[in-house]
Amino acid sequence: MLYTDVRVRVWTDGGPITLTDQVLGVQVQDGLDSLPQGTVLLPLHRTVSPTSRRRYSELIQVGDLALVEMLAWDGERGDWEAVLHGPVTAVEEAEGLGPEGEAVTRLGVASMAHILAQDAVARWLWYGHVAGWKVVESQLSIQEMLDDPASVAYRYLTKIAFHHANWQNGGTLQDFIHLDMDGLKAVGPFALELQLVEGSHLEIVRRLLDPPLHEVFVTTDRAANLRGRLTSRAGQAPGEGQAATVVRWRAAPYPYPGTGEWERLPLHRLEGTWQPVRGRSAAKTDAPIRNFFLLYPAFTFADEYILLAMGVAVANRRSIARYGYRPLKARTLLVHNEALKPEKSVEEHLKTLTQRMAAQWNRLQEMEAGTLELPLAPWIRPGERVRFSGLWGYRELLGHVRARQLTWDPRTGGRMSLAVERALPPEVYGDPGWFGEGLEVVRAGSEVLAQAWKEEKRR
Question: Most buried of 97, 160, 242, 295, CB within 10 angstroms?
């Protein structure tokens, strides 16, 4: 038997309000492509004294902080897990008409990353007139920006975004947001003037990203579970146990050229109490197919013609013949590796990165993607792995969690839906060569560039 429950608390201008006994329903969703968000369903009124009732819309305002925690326990395993912590983004009232009509209040809640996505840098409007742009500029030197993108993003958030963010509501962003940031150790001869750019903090960070070589996403966790390179101060919800919004930057961990990054991802076995019970869907489609890969350097002083000529291309000729030409073109700031093999040329380094990208996005049509519906297991988060029985239980599969949705209400308890991708038999994941099958380097960019220069001289 599985016991599930929720705890909800909101910190208002009038003090904290515990909503746990009043909750009519909770829904939370997050994923690699979306920021965590959710809704909390409440009655229309709250009894504030033996003789007085007030509407929740009078007690809770947009901008108040909320914490949502969920519990799933089978008598042996389970604990409270923070699933959402951040500002209230909406307070809605609704009333059903008719004899069974019910009046309710619906709270929209987002993670603390919502502030990073909304708090915008406009040097001409705020930093330039209030903080002074020279002050901001001095806190991130040129040398600190000549590094691998994960390190540059980490320094920008800790030295500029967290320090100068306008939001200060019961704390600062550094009090509530953890940074877990680690990526490929390579660097390019570039200098992004991060002190002078405009846009939201999250948008500025994503300009440093090298998709699909790197991934950045947001989830919610307890501080005790966090590992990696974190901010110096622990995020803690006011008056409650530790909880944090986590901004996680990582190298794409799919198994190539080895399996180490993939195997370090947390693995959850969906068996016993937590096996899929309400439904499972799976499909193989041609939508994700990519069979020609080009990675080119992000130099700011060259036009696209030269950049593409300097790039390295990898192709799967058999896939092209079967499915048609389906290219994936990407730019990268990682144009030279100084830490591991300084003697390696830029071209050789780009070749290695392109082969990595190609193998990680090769043969996706042979992997299953689908949805697993199972009892509530709030410790399973996007970016982690799950192992489960295939349809009709004829084999086991190992997959990657792309997104999740958690729901709870007093009548049916807690439920969970996982969007799973890259599902394959576990033994396949022990052979990284499987993912690179059929790939070949079809040209080295410098040869094309040299030929172009020769043709230009002839003219």
Answer: 295
Residue 177 to residue 204: CA distance in whole angstroms:
17
CA distance 317 to 295: 18
Q: How far apart are CA 10 and CA 85, in angstroms?
A: 10
Whole-angstrom distance, CA of residue 358 vs CA of residue 425: 21
Cβ count near 304 (within 10 Å): 9
Look at 348 and 115; give whichever has higher pLDDT: 115
Residues with Cβ within 8 Å of 435's Cβ and at least 6 positions away in sequence, in order, are 254, 255, 256, 359, 360, 362, 363
If you write DSSP's letter for every residue of 435-458 in order, what string do you get? TTTTEEEEEEHHHHHHHHHHHHHH
Determine the Cα–Cα distance for residues 231 and 237; give it in Å rounded to an integer. Answer: 16
Q: In 111-182, where do the E strands start and end? A: 120-121, 177-181
Q: Are 155 and 232 in contact (CB under 8 A)?
A: no
* Tens digits of residue pLDDT in 236-269: 343 344 568 999 999 999 999 889 999 999 999 9
β-strand pairing of 120-121 with 103-110: unpaired
Torsion-angle region of residue 130: left (phi > 0), alpha (psi -120 to 50) or beta?
Answer: alpha
Task: Determine the number of helices (DSSP H) and then strands (DSSP E) in the chain.
Answer: 13, 24
Residue 224, C-beta contacts closer than 8 angstroms, at least 6 positions apart: 242
Look at residue 98 in the predicted model and tell me its pLDDT: 59
pTM, whole model, 2 decimals? 0.87
Tens digit of each residue's pLDDT (9 = 90 or more) over 371-389 = 999 999 999 999 999 999 8
CB-based contact 140:162 (threshold 8 Å):
no
Residues 6+ apart with CB under 8 A from 236: 175, 176, 223, 242, 243, 244
Helix, coil or strand: residue 265: coil
Residue 199 pairs in a beta bridge with: 121
State yes or no: pLDDT of 330 exceeds 80.
yes
Amino acid at position 8, single letter:
V
Amino acid at 87: P
According to DSSP, the residues that pair with 215 across neighbouring strands are 250
Taking alpha carbons only, the member of 201, 250, 243, 249 closest to residue 220 is: 243
Asked if residue 366 lies in contact with residue 429, where contact means CB atoms within 8 angstroms, the answer is: no
Walk across the sheet containing 214-221 and list its strands. 177-181, 244-251, 214-221
Q: Which helix (H) or strand (E) holds 176?
A: helix 173-176
Please, what's the b/e burial string for 395-417 (b: 16 or more CB within 10 A of its CB; e: otherwise)? ebbbbbbbbbbbbbeeeebbbbb
Contact 177, 125 (CB under 8 A): no
